[in-house]
Amino acid sequence: MTKYWIGVASADHVELGVAGGFSQLCHGKEAPLKRMKPGDWLVYYSPKQTLGGVEKQQCFTAIGRVKGTEVYPFAMSETFVPYRKDIDFFLDAKAIPLHDISTLDAWQKYRSSLRYGHFEIDKAFFLILAEKMGLPMKYES
Question: Read out DSSP for 77-121?
């Protein structure tokens, strides 16, 4: 059964993931990636432009589908080896400002979950985000 997820990351980190075709969540933790199965969908929300920065982004910035089962370590430096999972991102996705959906009842039940960095959403809310981000209907099944 397909599940739908939101991951929280700065916009610059999301851009790296989209370019590389991977997801890296919760500062590189393995557990959130293991919850996502092939065929699941991931939507990224970016509260800030850069990690630790002050410039706000507050947009849903990327959408993609989980490609495989493998969660793998990736050495970004000698001291930082986060985990990743491959994602097939929809490269033409449009960013959605949070204020465009913040009044929807569907969002109200999820907004407090942002602090967790990764959480499941229902299909109805995913379809709202997918439509606003320009995901073609052929991708939504």
Answer: SSS---EEEEEEE-TTPPPEEGGGTTTSHHHHTTGGGGGGSEEEE
